[in-house]
Protein backbone atom coordinates (compact mmCIF):
# COMPACT_ATOMS: atom_id res chain seq x y z
CA UNK A 1 0.00 0.00 0.00
CA UNK A 2 1.34 3.39 -0.86
CA UNK A 3 1.27 6.35 1.52
CA UNK A 4 -1.66 8.14 -0.13
CA UNK A 5 -3.90 5.10 0.06
CA UNK A 6 -3.20 4.48 3.77
CA UNK A 7 -3.67 8.16 4.47
CA UNK A 8 -7.08 8.12 2.79
CA UNK A 9 -8.12 5.07 4.81
CA UNK A 10 -6.98 6.70 8.04
CA UNK A 11 -8.87 9.90 7.38
CA UNK A 12 -11.98 8.09 6.15
CA UNK A 13 -12.12 5.91 9.29
CA UNK A 14 -11.46 8.93 11.46
CA UNK A 15 -14.22 10.82 9.70
CA UNK A 16 -16.71 8.08 10.55
CA UNK A 17 -16.01 8.36 14.27
CA UNK A 18 -16.33 12.13 14.53
CA UNK A 19 -19.56 13.81 15.51
CA UNK A 20 -21.35 15.88 12.91
CA UNK A 21 -21.09 19.65 13.23
CA UNK A 22 -23.02 22.00 11.00
CA UNK A 23 -20.76 24.07 8.75
CA UNK A 24 -20.06 27.59 9.96
CA UNK A 25 -21.42 30.42 7.87
CA UNK A 26 -18.68 31.73 5.60
CA UNK A 27 -17.49 35.25 6.29
CA UNK A 28 -17.78 37.86 3.56
CA UNK A 29 -14.54 38.66 1.69
CA UNK A 30 -12.29 41.44 2.97
CA UNK A 31 -12.43 44.86 1.36
CA UNK A 32 -9.36 45.68 -0.70
CA UNK A 33 -8.33 49.31 -0.27
CA UNK A 34 -6.85 50.91 -3.41
CA UNK A 35 -3.34 52.37 -3.10
CA UNK A 36 -4.51 55.63 -4.76
CA UNK A 37 -7.00 56.16 -1.88
CA UNK A 38 -4.34 55.93 0.84
CA UNK A 39 -1.82 58.46 2.09
CA UNK A 40 0.98 56.67 3.93
CA UNK A 41 3.33 58.21 6.51
CA UNK A 42 6.10 56.58 8.55
CA UNK A 43 6.57 57.98 12.05
CA UNK A 44 8.99 57.46 14.90
CA UNK A 45 7.63 55.00 17.41
CA UNK A 46 6.94 55.74 21.06
CA UNK A 47 6.56 53.71 24.23
CA UNK A 48 8.28 50.49 25.32
CA UNK A 49 10.80 48.87 23.01
CA UNK A 50 13.90 50.85 23.84
CA UNK A 51 16.12 53.04 21.71
CA UNK A 52 15.43 51.07 18.51
CA UNK A 53 11.71 52.01 18.54
CA UNK A 54 12.39 55.66 19.36
CA UNK A 55 15.07 56.19 16.68
CA UNK A 56 13.52 54.47 13.64
CA UNK A 57 10.50 55.39 11.56
CA UNK A 58 8.79 52.02 11.92
CA UNK A 59 5.32 53.21 12.99
CA UNK A 60 2.85 53.51 10.09
CA UNK A 61 0.03 56.02 9.74
CA UNK A 62 -2.50 55.49 6.95
CA UNK A 63 -5.10 58.04 5.93
CA UNK A 64 -8.00 56.99 3.71
CA UNK A 65 -8.46 60.07 1.52
CA UNK A 66 -12.14 59.59 0.47
CA UNK A 67 -13.40 59.08 4.04
CA UNK A 68 -10.70 60.90 6.05
CA UNK A 69 -10.26 57.83 8.32
CA UNK A 70 -6.79 57.64 9.96
CA UNK A 71 -5.15 54.46 11.30
CA UNK A 72 -1.83 54.31 13.14
CA UNK A 73 0.01 51.03 13.78
CA UNK A 74 3.11 50.34 15.84
CA UNK A 75 2.61 46.71 16.89
CA UNK A 76 6.03 45.46 15.76
CA UNK A 77 9.51 46.84 15.13
CA UNK A 78 9.20 46.01 11.44
CA UNK A 79 7.90 48.68 9.07
CA UNK A 80 6.62 46.13 6.52
CA UNK A 81 4.66 44.17 9.13
CA UNK A 82 3.19 47.38 10.52
CA UNK A 83 2.11 48.37 6.97
CA UNK A 84 0.27 45.07 6.51
CA UNK A 85 -1.40 45.31 9.92
CA UNK A 86 -2.41 48.95 9.36
CA UNK A 87 -3.92 48.12 5.93
CA UNK A 88 -5.89 45.24 7.45
CA UNK A 89 -7.20 47.46 10.27
CA UNK A 90 -8.11 50.23 7.80
CA UNK A 91 -9.99 47.72 5.63
CA UNK A 92 -11.89 46.39 8.65
CA UNK A 93 -12.89 49.87 9.80
CA UNK A 94 -14.04 50.88 6.31
CA UNK A 95 -16.06 47.67 6.08
CA UNK A 96 -17.69 48.35 9.47
CA UNK A 97 -18.69 51.83 8.28
CA UNK A 98 -19.96 50.51 4.95
CA UNK A 99 -21.73 47.27 5.99
CA UNK A 100 -22.49 47.78 9.68
CA UNK A 101 -23.79 44.57 11.30
CA UNK A 102 -22.97 42.49 8.21
CA UNK A 103 -19.21 43.23 8.29
CA UNK A 104 -16.66 40.52 9.06
CA UNK A 105 -15.68 41.99 12.42
CA UNK A 106 -19.32 42.39 13.51
CA UNK A 107 -20.09 38.78 12.52
CA UNK A 108 -17.01 37.54 14.40
CA UNK A 109 -18.02 39.59 17.45
CA UNK A 110 -21.55 38.16 17.35
CA UNK A 111 -20.24 34.59 17.07
CA UNK A 112 -17.85 35.14 20.00
CA UNK A 113 -20.63 36.65 22.13
CA UNK A 114 -22.92 33.72 21.32
CA UNK A 115 -20.19 31.23 22.23
CA UNK A 116 -19.46 33.07 25.49
CA UNK A 117 -23.17 33.13 26.42
CA UNK A 118 -23.46 29.40 25.70
CA UNK A 119 -20.41 28.70 27.85
CA UNK A 120 -21.79 30.78 30.72
CA UNK A 121 -25.16 29.02 30.47
CA UNK A 122 -23.45 25.63 30.59
CA UNK A 123 -21.44 26.71 33.64
CA UNK A 124 -24.56 27.98 35.44
CA UNK A 125 -26.34 24.71 34.67
CA UNK A 126 -23.40 22.71 36.05
CA UNK A 127 -23.15 24.62 39.31
CA UNK A 128 -26.94 24.65 39.78
CA UNK A 129 -26.92 20.85 39.48
CA UNK A 130 -24.03 20.57 41.97
CA UNK A 131 -25.88 22.81 44.46
CA UNK A 132 -29.03 20.71 44.14
CA UNK A 133 -27.06 17.51 44.75
CA UNK A 134 -25.38 19.11 47.75
CA UNK A 135 -28.76 20.16 49.20
CA UNK A 136 -30.13 16.65 48.73
CA UNK A 137 -27.11 15.17 50.51
CA UNK A 138 -27.38 17.69 53.36
CA UNK A 139 -31.10 17.02 53.79
CA UNK A 140 -30.43 13.29 53.91
CA UNK A 141 -27.54 13.76 56.36
CA UNK A 142 -29.43 16.20 58.61
CA UNK A 143 -32.17 13.62 59.33
CA UNK A 144 -29.54 11.04 60.34
CA UNK A 145 -27.75 13.56 62.56
CA UNK A 146 -30.93 14.38 64.51
CA UNK A 147 -31.45 10.68 65.27
CA UNK A 148 -27.83 10.29 66.39
CA UNK A 149 -28.11 13.45 68.53
CA UNK A 150 -31.19 12.18 70.37
CA UNK A 151 -29.53 8.80 70.96
CA UNK A 152 -26.48 10.46 72.54
CA UNK A 153 -28.66 12.53 74.89
CA UNK A 154 -30.59 9.44 75.99
CA UNK A 155 -27.32 7.61 76.82
CA UNK A 156 -26.28 10.30 79.32
CA UNK A 157 -27.17 9.57 82.95
CA UNK A 158 -29.88 11.80 84.32
CA UNK A 159 -28.78 14.34 86.95
CA UNK A 160 -30.65 14.38 90.16
CA UNK A 161 -31.03 17.20 92.66
CA UNK A 162 -28.51 15.57 94.99
CA UNK A 163 -25.90 15.63 92.18
CA UNK A 164 -26.55 19.33 91.62
CA UNK A 165 -26.09 20.16 95.33
CA UNK A 166 -22.76 18.29 95.61
CA UNK A 167 -21.29 19.99 92.58
CA UNK A 168 -19.17 22.95 93.68
CA UNK A 169 -20.52 26.20 92.31
CA UNK A 170 -18.20 28.68 90.69
CA UNK A 171 -18.95 32.21 91.13
From TrEMBL:
<dbReference type="GO" id="GO:0032543">
    <property type="term" value="P:mitochondrial translation"/>
</dbReference>
<dbReference type="GO" id="GO:0003747">
    <property type="term" value="F:translation release factor activity"/>
</dbReference>
<dbReference type="Pfam" id="PF00472">
    <property type="entry name" value="RF-1"/>
</dbReference>
<dbReference type="InterPro" id="IPR052405">
    <property type="entry name" value="Mito_Transl_Release_Factor"/>
</dbReference>
<dbReference type="InterPro" id="IPR045853">
    <property type="entry name" value="Pep_chain_release_fac_I_sf"/>
</dbReference>
<protein>
    <recommendedName>
        <fullName>Prokaryotic-type class I peptide chain release factors domain-containing protein</fullName>
    </recommendedName>
</protein>
<feature type="compositionally biased region" description="Basic residues">
    <location>
        <begin position="111"/>
        <end position="128"/>
    </location>
</feature>
<dbReference type="GO" id="GO:0005739">
    <property type="term" value="C:mitochondrion"/>
</dbReference>
<comment type="similarity">
    <text>Belongs to the prokaryotic/mitochondrial release factor family.</text>
</comment>
<keyword id="KW-0496">Mitochondrion</keyword>
<feature type="region of interest" description="Disordered">
    <location>
        <begin position="99"/>
        <end position="171"/>
    </location>
</feature>
<keyword id="KW-0809">Transit peptide</keyword>
<dbReference type="InterPro" id="IPR000352">
    <property type="entry name" value="Pep_chain_release_fac_I"/>
</dbReference>
<feature type="domain" description="Prokaryotic-type class I peptide chain release factors">
    <location>
        <begin position="31"/>
        <end position="131"/>
    </location>
</feature>
<feature type="compositionally biased region" description="Basic and acidic residues">
    <location>
        <begin position="129"/>
        <end position="162"/>
    </location>
</feature>
Amino acid sequence: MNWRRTNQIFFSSRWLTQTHRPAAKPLPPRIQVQDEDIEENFLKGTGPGGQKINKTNSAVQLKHLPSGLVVKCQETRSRSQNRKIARRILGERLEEIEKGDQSRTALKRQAAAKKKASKAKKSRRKYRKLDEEKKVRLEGDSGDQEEVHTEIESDKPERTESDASTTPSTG
